[in-house]
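User: Can you write out an input/output pair for a complex, sequences first and structure second?

Assistant: Here is one pair. Inputs:
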Amino acid sequence: MKRTHPIIASLALLTMGFLYLPLLGVAVFSVNSARRGLVWKGFTLDWYIKLFSNEWILEAAWNTFLLAVTSTLVATVLGTVLAIGMDRFPWTRRINNILDIILHIPVVIPDIILAAALVVAFGLLRVLSAMFEPGLLNMIIGHITFQIAFVALVVRSRLVAIGSEIEEAARDLFAGNWYLMRRIMLPLLMPGIVAGGMLAFTLSLDDFVISFFTAGPESQTLPLYIFAAVRRGVTPQIHALSTLIMIITVVLVIGTERFTRKG
Amino acid sequence: MTRRLLIWYGELTTRQNLLKRGLYFLSSGMLWLMVFLVLPGLVLVVVSFATRGAYGQLEWDFTIENYKRLMGFSLFGWTSDYLVILWRSVVVAFFTTLVSIVLSYPLCFFIAGREERSRYMWLTLVIIPFWTNMVIRTYAWFLILAPELPFAKLAAAMGFIPHGAPLYPNAFAVYIGMVSMFLPFVTLPLYASVEKLDWSLVEAAQDLYASRVRVFTQAILPQTMPGLSVGIILTFVPAMGMFVVPDLLGGAKYMLVGNLIQQQFGASRDWPFGAAISMGLMILTMVSLQIYRRKSKEIEHI
């Protein structure tokens, strides 16, 4: 391995500092007892304790969680089945190309366009049913739509990696369709499915744009809450909430890393 | 189609049989994507030619009025307002991508030069901001750019901002926010290529007295092109549509196309115009990527 030039190393460290400086700032001022301003007035955990008595935040946290869990479950099932359907059947090249393009749309267009399209579509569907009023259901549908693509892409790469030998061996030993699916494919695919699901879950927690466009007055999520709050003025409580979210992110990232490295 | 038998993944079957089963597998996911992705996309195209009613409702008189308005034609003659915002979005996305690339190369070389164990730690350190919520990462700059800190004081001393004012909202803050937002999007895919880099080619170039610039453009750049391309697409496309960063750090004076779209679907409630702007954004993104694809082929064939 080449030794790193000191100039390159210091540039790299500066860049890391640039990435982390603002985040550290948030963490530091979440335990500062000063109500306003950038002066250090002593350590406190008050802002964290107050979070748990703020009904708005608790409700937003619950909505965020409900949204992420529901959409991830649906998207993981749909995405996995879709990936198998795309990879394991002799489609002609043209059909494969079309399926591929559709699958890549949510990955390669700016998310604000998907959000705009969903707003308009829900607006028209509202004529048919009041179900499509802005709110949690619309947000779940929006999240599933972009999650499916990511799950399917991850699972499909796992399908390619598994190859065909094991399935051929199973068929040679007279495994039926169901047996093959349940006892061979699913266990082999599991690491891919879990990785896809975790990706979908993080994408949902992380999403702001789709939620912002499809949310109703009753369906605040934490990112939406923070956005609205910082436009009114930043408070230590927002720092505390953001720090908690960052800690959860770190745990999720390290957990996923551990899992995918083993899988 | 013939009823010929074939062997597919060890199963003796016919093509029809397989395709029928395959259709079952595809149906649920594809139906979902059709109803909630493809159809809404088409509806968006149609609505971009519709008219806004007096109360913000849709009226189906088809015109190209929305696109003319985007091009700057209005009742009061021609203004460049919207075109300026569109052009600014392209420029901001371009420079965000460029600066992210420039900062990512040293970072990738640095990480690739660590020992195996600490490499994972450094990579994880890049991945964490990648997954941290973008609203948090954007507003976090409020603290760093606050008037009490040396950055704002320095800018004030040089006369860029009044004394005691924060270093936002302005164009500079938008760039800072955008680069810190998208930097990991370039670093992570680029790292995959840098890790596989064949250093013997770089050394060969150095042995043949190539200048530093030529070593980079002819030995390093072509080898890292695959990862770099992924990074560029992952950065440029969402940067074009970004509205959180300009909203919080740019204010009304430094709007990007994302803010313009959000306004139409929010306060102004002008869906047809919002749809037309979305189409404009879509076309700009596609054209830029096409130009990039041409250019990158040239580089790979050096």
